[in-house]
Design a protein that fits this description.
about 180 residues; 5 helices
């Protein structure tokens, strides 16, 4: 997608639900698996388990709904272009907090601010649900554009809050 043609683009966000039509579920699963393949292809990223991501995708969106969260898919001109998910963190980690997960924008749709739109949509939902914080972890060297979005939206570095085995992770939090 040519960013110069952005004025003619129609962006639509849709929550992925268990009762969504099969094509929508298939599209969301494919976006999630594309995210995983991208992470695996990054130099220096070890510890990422694609097998567990495949299991997560197979259970989408239930895998997030059962954890007090959900997922969104972005479409540009009717085509699936991005994905994000969130889930509640255990109270012992952070009471009344969510974790932002799996932000992914297809390469052809980059430069259209979809990453920001998807992230902001989760933050808006967190505020509406009276969450106090949103956490995330990311590999800054692999996801530099996503990191810029997070920092621009006010996320700040924090200590590790999970046992994610991926090397080179940065941990971030936004106080709402």
């Amino acid at each position: 997608m040519d960013p110069r043609a952005a004025t003619s683009l129609q962006v639509h966000l849709a929550e992925v639900t268990a009762i969504a039509a099969e094509p929508a579920l298939t599209q969301a699963k494919e976006l999630l698996l594309e995210y995983g393949r991208f992470i695996l292809a990054q130099p220096g990223v070890t510890g990422f388990c694609y097998g567990s991501l495949e299991q997560e995708a197979a259970r989408l969106p239930v895998s997030y709904n059962q954890q007090g969260g959900g997922c969104l898919m972005a479409h540009v001109n009717g085509q699936p272009a991005g994905f994000v998910a969130w889930r509640a963190l255990p109270a012992e980690v952070a009471p009344s907090a969510w974790e932002l997960k799996r932000l992914w924008v297809r390469p052809a749709a980059r430069g259209l601010s979809l990453g920001r739109v998807l992230t902001q949509a989760v933050l808006d939902r967190a505020r509406a649900a009276l969450r106090a914080q949103v956490f995330l972890d990311t590999v800054p060297t692999a996801m530099a554009a996503a990191l810029r979005i997070y920092l621009q939206l006010g996320f700040e570095p924090c200590g590790p809050y999970n046992d994610n085995p991926v090397e080179g992770l940065g941990y971030f939090v936004l106080n709402l």
